[in-house]
Amino acid sequence: MILFKKAADLSQYTQLQQSSQKKVGFVPTMGALHDGHLSLVEASKKTNEVTVCSIFVNPTQFNNSEDFKHYPITIEKDIEKLVAAGCDVLFLPNVEEIYPVGYEAKHYDLGHLETVLEGFYRPGHFQGVCQVMDRLLSIAQPTTLYLGVKDYQQCMVITRLVALMNLQEKLKISIEPTLREQSGLAMSSRNLRLSETEKEKALAIFRSLEMAKEKIGTEKIAEIEQHGTEVLTENGLKVDYFRIVDGDTLQEVSETTKHKVVLVAAWLGNVRLIDNLILN
Predict the structure, then answer these.
(1) Are 129 and 231 members of one domain?
(2) Of 16, 104, 153, 178, which is least surrounded by CB within 10 A?
(3) Residues 170 and 235 both lie in one domain
(4) What is the pLDDT of residues 153-211, one digit of tens each?
């Protein structure tokens, strides 16, 4: 595996690959890698000659300084996992490489995506996501971008960003399924901050999602949302939201909306967990 720390070096490398008609898959991460991340690498390797993974804990997307300070860093283990997974290139920049002297942040028109759910509870978060993804896509210039559907709203935001960057003709976005532990707990870097007791409590998240899938179509949406919130609260989680929305727009749904998704965000102590399940 090749390791690049400089943006210019990675750009030169990927341009050379593409000039040789090689397809480049890109997996952006913030490290603390788990099998969910590695499944994105695996998906890329199936259809691209070159797979690039980046590890960069992006400070501009943290609206909570404590969350940024405590975000798990496991770089040596991450490198071992990427080598074992057959990743071709790791981009490991520092902050100055992503946001060099003179960098001026743009404002990205994300519409209502910035005001609902994660946008509401984490103001400024998605602007930070767009800042880093704009830079990473400009540097890596991939053929296909691989994202995990666990970050459902973020996938929609990045899809919007790709359109704003006028890259939709050049860049394919592949959104891959959520990987879960045998228990049902969605794989997440933040799980490293949970004790075994907290992991047991966190299983209520998946149970609440499954409950919603079971009841959709037979009970009123507001009642399902209330029940899901109660399940989480009874298990010691502090709920930001448990919402059933239109899977294409994240707007309100009616009983006849064809594509519904349930999204949840809840706190266990000082660790915030998100998850979702497509309902139909």
Answers:
(1) no
(2) 104
(3) no
(4) 999 999 999 999 999 999 999 999 999 999 999 999 999 999 999 999 999 999 999 99
Which residue type, as a one-letter code, is found at position 96?
A: E
The string over 210-239, giving b where at least 16 C-beta atoms fall within 10 Å of a residue's C-beta and e elsewhere, is: ebbeebbeeeebeebbebbbebbeebbbeb
- State the average pLDDT over residues 12-39: 97
Q: Where a domain ends, among 120, 154, 176?
A: 176
Same domain, 100 and 139: yes
CA–CA separation, 141 vs 170, rounded Å? 9
State the pLDDT confidence band at 66, using cuts at 50, 70 and 90.
confident
Residue 126 identity = F
Domain that holds residue 156: 2-176
Q: Is the pLDDT of residue 64 over 90?
A: no
Whether 110 and 160 have beta carbons less than 8 Å apart is answered as: yes
Is residue 279 one of the residues assigned to a domain? Answer: no
Beta bridge partners of 180: 186
Q: Which of 37, 70, 125, 227 is catalytic?
A: 37
The amino acid occupying position 98 is: I
Among 176, 208, 235, the domain-final residue is 176
How would you classify the pairing of strands 271-278 and 50-55?
Answer: unpaired
- 119 in the same domain as 22: yes
